[in-house]
Design brief:
Radius of gyration: 22 Å
Shape: elongated
Helix content: 25-40%
Number of helices: 2
Number of strands: 7
Largest sheet: 7 strands, antiparallel
Length: 192
Amino acid sequence: MKQMIKLSVTLALYTVIACLALAAVNMLTAPRILAAKEAKTKQALQAIFPDADSFTPITDGIPKSVNKVAFGDAFLALSGEKTVGIIITISGHTYDQATILTGIDMEGKLRMIQFLTLTDSPGIGTKAKDEPFIGQFRNKPIADGFVLGGDVQAIAGATITSTAVTRMVKIAVDAASSYMSSHGLGSSGSGN
């Protein structure tokens, strides 16, 4: 009995020490992880709108989710005081999961999409972030239908990913178009 109590106390002590060590490591690394994430996001925003010199967060007017597609951060891309575009982060289920930045300019074109994460099958679903699939969205008019097999061609062997990405981008384009229309920005109308 005494041996069992001693083992229990020892095990509890090791557990407390391990928890404290993990908490300390988390405290030390959390700011670095956040800074790296912010730097990656800023770099991605700048890649979509290289002519923008600042990005202002949008805090209202963008839905939280639409048809199981979650909206994350949204930004107005600014060149001086002039709005040059809107960037919306979307996340949703593909074959696995994807988080995508979509950039729409004031002329009513989808500048490009950029994947922040894509956890689909390596070599198959992950082809969605490569040419020629991703290039189909570059400078695409937001009035287009975004129809797989129509104005967007699927990736061979990755139809689920292709369908999901196309659907997610269409939802983001519609939300951006609605935001632009309600705030008097650029040309709007997504063809719905």
